[in-house]
Amino acid sequence: MIWLILFLGFFLSYIGTGLMMVAVLCAIMYAFVSREISVKALLNKNSLNYKNSYIIIIGIVFGLWLISAFMGIDDHAFDTWSRHAVIACAGLLLYVILKNRPLPDFKNKLLYAQVIATIFSLWAIFDHSLIAPSVSEFLRGTDFWSSYYASILAMALPFSLWACVQSKRAINWVVPFLMVTAIFACGGRSGWIALIVMLFGFMALFPFKEYVHALRTKLYCVLSVITGAISGLLIYWQAVGTESFLTRSAMSSEAGLGSGRLDIWKFSWEKFLENPVWGIGPRNFRNLDFTGVELTSTYHPHSIVLELLLETGVMGFVAFMLFILLLLRDSTKTFYKNHDDVQVRSFLICSVCALMAFGAASMTLTSIFHGWWFGYFVLLCVFIKVGIYKLSKNH
Fold first, then answer.
1. pTM to 2 decimal places
2. What is the per-residue pLDDT for 69?
3. Fewest beta carbons less than 10 Å away: which of 128, 233, 375, 394?
């Protein structure tokens, strides 16, 4: 049940961006109510080793971010820091719950996830095809053009592809086709890039040879993505018109290449050089002085690298990257050590590919200091760490 709640939460951001974290909290509450874990088990020294390198680095990251908030240009940074600290604690709690219970039979659980993915993909396609704008407006309000959702679907896609690989029925490949169609129909170019990065990672890392008909399965993967991309682009073209379609497909706009992001990045770099060590404080980009500067966005730098450098300084950025490198190093080492448990290996690789999509989208999309987006990062890190723990334990 916990996994179904988490899979559902992954897609709920189409209704409201904060609902994913609501799902995480519901999963945690369910674990305690159903007595799948107790407070006593949670406090057991084996549940969460505070001398663990991950816990130490997380503590260092948030300690440095707190200093950046204190040294920042606005007190608003403390609110952002505390909110992210709560999300990180929820992630640690979820990790303890998942590591202390056996992983489910993903072959069955992923079928439920496929149903959820189908519903939300069809919903997104319906909205962005403008078949019935009045219906979309009634269901989601006037602002139903949610381009950010393309990136979320790109993160969820490797799990859908895995479900299809496990299935012997060709009809199941309709689900990733619909997801890719929705990714391109939504018009989120960050999602398009995230999809491409994720697909390269999935095709290179996923253990296709452990499943039947490996070559045919790879062909289905590629075909579902190509046909979905074509159909999604056609829907997007019909919705926005030829001129807008060609402009956005070329990653450009009236504001210049990347919809003015180059100007934003240049401005962010210049401001970083003024506060290189500790930065200006989390989510304080919007509080900078933009006098004499015309930018398409004054909310965040639209790049996770520049944002961390600018808002947390070199210290916060380096600590964050050490955490990522440690996670990826352990994922790689563990993946190649244990070749017996195909289910857990596949889960780990899908989680890593989803994190790759997150990283690619974060280079141009939203802010890591938005709670809902940071929540996806935490959830994917939990998935990866659970996979590492289970494979290491089995080995």
1. 0.91
2. 92
3. 394
Residues of the chain with pLDDT under 70: 35-51, 133, 136-145, 248-259, 338-340, 393-395
By three-state DSSP, how is residue 83 classified? helix
- The total of other beta-carbon atoms located within 10 Å of residue 72's CB is 25
Which ranges in 72-188 belong to alpha helices (H)?
76-99, 106-128, 133-140, 149-166, 174-185
Look at phi and psi of residue 381 and say left if phi exceeds 0, alpha if psi is from -120 to 50, else beta. Answer: alpha
Longest CA span, the chain: 62
Residue range 363-388, pLDDT digits in tens: 988 889 999 999 999 999 999 999 98
Give the torsion through C-alpha atoms of 144, 150, 155, 157, to 10 deg: 100
Tokens of 169: 């029925």
CA angle 8, 221, 24 (to 5 degrees): 15
Q: What pLDDT was estimated at residue 31?
A: 80
The CA-atom distances, in angstroms, between 110 and each of 114, 168, 195, 198, 211 are 6, 14, 20, 19, 16
DSSP conformation letters of 308-373: HHHHHHHHHHHHHHHHHHHHHHHHHHHHHH--S-HHHHHHHHHHHHHHHHHHHHHTTSS-TTSHHH
